[in-house]
Fold this sequence. Notes:
Elements: H1 3-29, H2 36-169, H3 173-186, H4 191-203, H5 207-220, H6 225-240, H7 246-265, H8 277-288, H9 291-304, H10 309-321, H11 325-345, H12 350-362, H13 366-378, H14 386-398, H15 407-432
Helix pairs in contact: 1-2, 2-3, 3-4, 4-5, 4-6, 5-6, 6-7, 6-8, 7-8, 8-9, 9-10, 10-11, 11-12, 12-13, 12-14, 14-15
Amino acid sequence: MRLPRILVILMIVTLAAIPAMIALAQEAETTPEPDALSRAEAAAARAEAAAARAEEVEVIATEAAEEAAGMVDLAGGLFGLFEAMSGAVGLVVPVLAVLAGLVGFRRLESAQNELREARERFERDMKLRETELDQLRDDLKSTMQRQRENAARASVALSLLPLGERQYKAQDYTGALDTYRRALALDPENPIIHYRMGYVYTQAGQLEEAARHLNRSLELDPEFGPSIATRGYVYRRTGDKMSASIERDLIYNKAEENFLQALERSPKLVDEDGEPWWGALGGLYRRRGQVEQAIRAYERATEIAPHSSYPFSNLALLYAQTHNRARMLETYARVEKLAIGEVQAEVDNYYAYADLVVARIALGKFKEVEDILETALRTAPVDSTYPLDLLVETLDRLLPELDNDHRPQAVEIRQRIMDFRAQRESQKSSAAD
């Protein structure tokens, strides 16, 4: 590949030298003119430059000739080697061609096998994906069907809740519980239904069943304040049945913990009867002998429910315990007015009737007590003796605060309530037999 490069160089050198030689020849033939000396000097300078360039060209040409000769020798050697190997190459080339053919065939065969295996894997994967897709589609259909069915059942369950509420308000605890059981069968994971059952069981005095449903409600919704507060009430009621002991103190502590937890989340929380849960906490403090704390709790309840006789009735007795008789009577006068309004608005409101009876006894209005006592007793829930027991307990606390002239009449009314309670229990036993 270097030989053409040398020839090109020689040609370039030759062409470069021609103008110099022509110039020398022309200068040699030129006749001197008047300014001949200057022109002669210039010509001499040009001649010297041309001579210098000629020497350079000669050197380059010599080197190019030597390089060309070397390349010719190399080419000759390579040509001889090629002639020597031509016989062997004539044999090797067919062999290499055969080997290349075999290798190519093997590669082609391998590629075909890989392609076939890939196609088979692809077909297997596609069938598997189709099977999985069909299963997923079936599962989705089943899930959607179950969701529709569950939604329909939950809707029916929710429609039963107002009926259960009305039955409870009518003091029909058995009917309310039956309705809630039907709702629970339709929607067993509903925390509200469990809460409602727990509340009714509490009012019916079935505290173990109440605790079971309330705990389940809180498993489903640990932050549900009504269930937390009602569980506190169950603890308090459980402690009320125990004699003074460390065990009772521990139960009361659990009650307080639940009340405070619920009220911290919702300070204006009320129960299913519309009464503030601060009142239940006040009742707990009163049972512990923490009178000042009880008063503060009931006062909070009056702020939340200023038209309810319940917290004011309890405050009146607490004022009596602090020897503030004037404030006791003043508060009972307010209880009487509030209770009258409540029983007029809701004729079967037993607790308002009970507050009215107690207020009139405290105020010495025994004739007015006679006018409402029978009605009050008939509105007491049939399925539980607790409301009547609570009324008797309240009268027991009030008796020491009454004048000597009024105390005998109050004792007589208390006895009439006890007789009514015993008669109702007898009737229930007879009906059960």
